[in-house]
Fold:
Amino acid sequence: MPKGALGGNRSTALRWARRLRSLGWSVRRAEHARRRAPCRHVDLIVALHAVKVRHEVEGLIELHPEAKLVVACAGTDIYEQEGDAQPLLERADRLIVLQEQALDELSARQRRRAHVIHQSTPRRSVPEREAPEIAIIASLRAVKEPLLAASAARLLPDDSGLRVVHVGPAICAELEEQVRREQANNARYEWHGNVRRSEALCLLAGARAVVVPSRSEGGANVITEAFAMGTPVLASRVPGNTGLLGEEHPGLFDAGDTQGLARLMLRIEREPGFREDLARRSTVRAALASPDREVAAWRQLLEELGFGT
Structure:
């Protein structure tokens, strides 16, 4: 993936590498390690996703059996049961989940080894939200429901000025074809593909609201980034989202509910009080996304593993 490109896992990996370095660790990402001489000694292996990197992690464990293993659980690991996450979850010395509700999906034994580490982002200055844009920042994968917001935009009344601006890489060729067709036939929808992260953050900062329509989420990075900017969040009512937003968040809609999302989008446009309430809720929850809080959580985890920091 190109430097500066979108990608939740990439953003998390880069940020956690910075956090660990701030705690005095020497960190090497796996894709870099493959291009360099093998590490002589490894104290800690951090796996971001129990299924997708399982075989690579097992190879690292064979090379460094003395290393401690920390596994960060993605939404598909714990909610979708994509593949078999259990071997790595059982083998891990510690587990990380990105919001509290994910703990409910773990076994009692796994919960005893689990830490909640909310993804962080620094507070950012917020421009006036005059652009009629509803942002969606998500890759083209079925679990992300990438066309739900576009379908909802079709249901808006003729005099609505809202449009959906979608950024995110094309992971699935079939979905990319569908998205291109939608863009050609829906004047209220634009897909800009895999833009640089800085461009995505500018979109998020200036949007009237961001939509997170996924069928499953572990704890979306875009939500904590919205908190830091005070951007209103409209999200599907699934555990990964409600674990960050709260069960009573007024911007929730049922997963896959196009009409429900359309109603919320129209309220964003026509009810300033509703939009301001959602923006205030994001600002209030920005404390969850504090970099200092994330560093402190990592320090505690490492101390439990016997590493002084």
